[in-house]
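Just wondering, can you check both lines?
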Amino acid sequence: MDNWIVLVGVNHKTAPVEVREKLGTSGNSEEILSQLAQLSPLREVLFLSTCNRVEILFTTKQSAETGVKAVKQFLADFNQIPISQFENALYVYQQTEAVAHVFRVSSSLDSMVIGEPQILGQIKDAYRLALKHRLAGPILNRLLHKAFSVAKRIRTETKLAHHAVSISYAAVEMAKRIFSHLEGKKIMLIGAGEMAELAAQHLLNNGVKSIVVANRTLERAIELAERFQGKAISMEEIKEGLKEVDIIISSTGAPNFILLEKDVRQSMRARRHRPIFFIDIAVPRDIDPQINQIDNAYVYDIDDLQGVVEANKIKRQKEAQKAERIIEEETIKFKLWLETLSVVPTIIALKHKLEEIKHAELNKTFNQLKHLSEKDKEAIAVMTEAMIKKILHDPIQFLKQKENRERIDLYLDITRRLFNLDNHEEQERGYHKKTEFKE
């Protein structure tokens, strides 16, 4: 095997956060990568560090085991921890398994939340860093660009990212069902729960115009309002505020409902019955479910949203199966390309030798036939070039044929022996060394 592709890593499935954080942080990525480049078995290298995974992707011309051993020792030395603290959490993939893993990670099939888009950007950042350090050669360049195109293909051909699998995203999805669009809508955030804040942020990211924050502690309301560039109000002003807002996200610790059916019914007259959407993430609930009986008023509590999430998880799993088939197909294609690499050095050596023979014989012929014009010489050179291409065509095509791959090592050996390529390359290296010594 001329080139091994190897991936060594840990992720949220194999290691707890206290192990992952010891093995590398994004802040150290450049330093880690520069030191990985010094490991003799490694040729091309990419280092990926996120909150959920630490992975080292590399190629080596030595055995995969040698490369893995060097990486393990590096991780131990760099992070000043014994190998025993993380070895059991490591996974190692080689060749097509490594390729498929890179495709799966790039496509967010290996993420904690399947379909989340952040990982692709993180891989692109890691790739840019590898390019900066000149550690991405022909194999990793091809692999990473293919990974990006696979991720794009999966986004295009499946609906992997179309179904919300978090409470906050589910709230946005439900809001989109009620309102044809979210642009220009206004939010009221009641309370300061984390999920409510996330939902508010997602809604703002989806075009919602402004936010009003109500909290039992006005200082906290002001703090949140400033974060969202909104307006703070007291709890007593909520009912009046219902006349203006379109979406209410509530997450307080109140023991009883803070909004009753009669409160909303009164505000609907002032609203001229424009739709109003309540997202109740509080337990116990903040919003009276009887509000659902009012025309154009919609109440969803935590169970409703969780139901959306669970249904969407099932949908995503079905889409993930489609994505896996795409990855399997693209992995096979990459494997076929990888297999052609083994014939490249022999083909190059064969072309190089025949080119040298051509030039030597042309020079000899032209020295003997002094009467030839430049036009005649050019015609002869073109003819010999065409002859060489035709001579090379069949053996090159033979070496590249798929059906010959199982015995390619034998065919390459025969080709190199027939054309004496190894001795020729040795002579070439010897000549260049002598030339360098003389200089």
Notes: The chain has three domains: 4-163, 167-309, 339-429.
